[in-house]
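Record type: monomer structure entry
Structure origin: computed from sequence
Chain ID: A
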Amino acid sequence: MTADDPLGAEAPVAAEAPVPTDDQVSAEPQAFPPRPVRGVRARCVHQSSCPGDLAIVTVDFEPWEEGLVVESAPDATVRGGPEPGDLERFHAALGEGVRAELAERLPGVPVALALVVRHTVVHLVDSREHSFRTAGRLAVREALALLEAGVARDG
């Protein structure tokens, strides 16, 4: 009992909050891709019926701003002579496939990706948007495998 505390019940002292250690701090997930993955080849080729599926691409996965942008490299090559407007539709479908596969394989991981198309093979009859969506999914699987293996590919 003190003059300041006539009842002898001192006020509890607030404890300082413990400072979390580095391993207790939950960091934001690193954006995909964490580093460039270049020269990724994806092939969707299925020729058991007509029309079949044909989409062959070589792409680079480049770190970029948040989101996904699909662009053609200045020196990009195209084999197969697509109809006017087809290449833009096929590349958009490629990006849709990449986006869908990343959402399934890396849920919650932010995407900050420039998908740079280096080479495209099209067939007048057998190339369809579906073929390129599938190729986009396959390209993600290959890029993830290369990243996991620690392989740096430069084309």
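Annotation 1: Residues 11-15 have pLDDT under 50 and may be disordered.
Annotation 2: The chain has two helices and four strands.
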